[in-house]
Structure prediction request, 112 residues.
Amino acid sequence: MANICTKIKLYAKSKGVNSIDFLTDVVVEQPAGEDPKIKTWNLSIDEPTADQLNSFESAGNTDETLQAVLNKRANEYLSWQQQMEMIYKDQKNGTTTFKDHCDKVRSDNPKG
Prediction:
């Protein structure tokens, strides 16, 4: 099940709003034993209904799956300093260490 914040982001994007601050623009709360809900709505577009948010369930699941893959990739890539060192050594030695590293991270974590 897609997170309510993901569905809110997709709803807002469909209405032309590309950035949301979940501390000031939209505040979500989850009272004990209840589903999360919108507590505060400070965007220039209408607050979505539950049905409107639910219409983004499938797209939200897809978005969250992709984000998980991208996060895993980011964790597996080496530091930028290590990557620069690989690039330097590859250019100096005619090797493909950097490309091989990137290809492995991508093949181990396909986007789908």
